[in-house]
Design brief:
Length: 152
């Protein structure tokens, strides 16, 4: 999907604490600003792995963006092609379609508009007002997936 990127930002100790707190709140039914817990089967173990994510809706479609780059959940979902989103007792199974780099700018802009307060620091010198050319430059380092109904 465009040029190959291996961009990955490892979570700090503070990030880990924040992610645990957001994950816990989301699991008990108090999602932070629409957060969900993403569960994906491990690509080698087959065991479910979970992490909090911030879905974004744009033009009637839902997307998952990986602000830290090519993380383990990204690698796992590319292999499995599906996952679960959970908030409280609501569990939604879905499949994914990866978005090519040239189609990412409006999605990245919407994501930054909604979530920059939480993840903006992962978008080095880029914000919701950055030109499309700049968003295209960074696109390979930010995997984006369309969330599709499991049966579709």
């Amino acid at each position: 999907m465009g040029h190959v990127s291996t961009r990955y930002l490892k979570p700090t100790a503070m990030d880990a604490v924040f992610n645990r707190a957001v994950g816990w709140l989301t699991r008990i039914g108090l999602p932070l600003a629409g957060s969900r817990v993403l569960s994906v089967r491990g690509r080698t173990s087959g065991e479910w792995r979970s992490t909090p994510v911030n879905p974004i809706r744009l033009a009637g479609e839902r997307y998952l963006v990986s602000p830290r780059g090519h993380t383990q959940w990204v690698r796992n979902i590319r292999v499995s092609g599906e996952g679960r989103l959970t908030a409280g007792r609501r569990v939604e199974e879905f499949r994914i379609e990866e978005i090519p780099d040239d189609q990412k700018p409006p999605i990245l802009r919407a994501y930054l508009t909604a979530w920059a307060w939480e993840v903006g620091r992962f978008f080095e010198n880029v914000d919701k007002d950055s030109p499309d050319e700049r968003l295209l430059e960074i696109a390979p380092g930010f995997p984006v997936f369309r969330v599709l109904p499991h049966g579709a």
